[in-house]
Description:
Chain A is of the alpha/beta class. Chain A has one domain (3-186): HUPs (Rossmann fold, 3-Layer(aba) Sandwich). Chain A is built from seven helices and five strands; from the N terminus they run βαβαβααβαβαα. In chain A, α1 (12-23) crosses α6 (168-178) and α6 (168-178) packs across α7 (200-212). Chain A binds chain B through residues 60, 62-64, 66-67, 69-72, 92, 96-103, 105-107, 109-111, 113-115, 133-134, 136, 138-139, 142-143, 145-153, and chain B through 60, 62-64, 66-67, 69-72, 92, 96-103, 105-107, 109-111, 113-115, 133-134, 136, 138-139, 142-143, 145-153.
Amino acid sequence: MTKAVCLMSGGMDSTTAAYLAREQGYEIVGLHVTYGQRTEGKEKQCARTIARLLPAREFLEVDIGYLRILGGSTLTDQQRVIADYDPQREELPDTYVPFRNANLLSIATSAAEAKGAEAIFIGAQAHDYSGYPDCRPAFLEAFQEVINRGTRDTTSITLHAPFVHMTKAGILKIGIGLGVPYEHTWSCYRNEGLACGRCGSCHFRTEAFREIGVRDPLSYEEIP
Amino acid sequence: MTKAVCLMSGGMDSTTAAYLAREQGYEIVGLHVTYGQRTEGKEKQCARTIARLLPAREFLEVDIGYLRILGGSTLTDQQRVIADYDPQREELPDTYVPFRNANLLSIATSAAEAKGAEAIFIGAQAHDYSGYPDCRPAFLEAFQEVINRGTRDTTSITLHAPFVHMTKAGILKIGIGLGVPYEHTWSCYRNEGLACGRCGSCHFRTEAFREIGVRDPLSYEEIP
Lengths: 224, 224
């Protein structure tokens, strides 16, 4: 069986991507990366549960707390406030963690090359989110080139970002079809107990469930 | 003053690159990355000393011990033996750490974007070393593209690899001209006390000093 390294944050998109990889016949090497974000405890718990349920052949946990130390994001800075979702907002949200996905993909590629995996799955999607530059298709295409040139000539690793052109509702539809247990996924940027219902991430999650007419199994502080 | 993030391993090439960045008028943000390699204690000590001497405006230390856990290299695996330098060897040396430089450059880019630096310096050089894929010019060019596409549209970061087409002797000549204190750099893959004189890294270092007719300030277990 061919192995795939699946980046598993504990959120909806990456969980769905891991189930899709399983459906496509890959043996899953789950990779969860901690970078000092606020809701990490809950996210890791979700990723571990999903790895057990898939089941993944192996589950790797990597800590890159340096991203918090380097700063530059409200997501990793407990002193700063996470803004409510604002549909009028045009600039990049301050939850952007500088170049985060390149860090994640580098780790995933090192893991894939060390363990002989031929694929990497990432749940990145460019549509709903407000333009994180490291979620864009063009970024992911460039990263594939970096993988091709920066690994052994005998190594062949394909980067799969199956949802990069899809909406969150579209991803959710696929996941429902695959039987993804969304009760074991987490999206809220703010809380680890009850989801807040007001941050950008809760906004897009609840909107996706509403759009496809399925009940979100999570509970919210405030009904969005 | 414009800031440059300089990757500083404690070795000859990256130290020379940092002195070159200083010469070109940059304010230095030094970045030392630990990844569980054998001689890390000595390398970090050298990098710290160089940061103090430059002097760097800031010196960041980042731990990515996960590379050791992922495995795949004799450089990070204490159970395996580092081979002596062998001029006949054609395949990639087993000191290759899978995709290491992409991990280092991702961290450097996150740091540069978070801190408003416009340049990154890496001491990579393709000539002497036996074909580490993540030291090749084509890899570095592809990484520049990833930086352009994966950071904010308002961010502009140029990746400088000034020595990528040079030999180690050529780099050393430049460094001697810039007054680089090579007594505070470390190259040996095996030891932290006396350099072994027999591993690939000692081989290329001592050969470079010999070629330009300058005495290497380090002492060796075995005169190479």
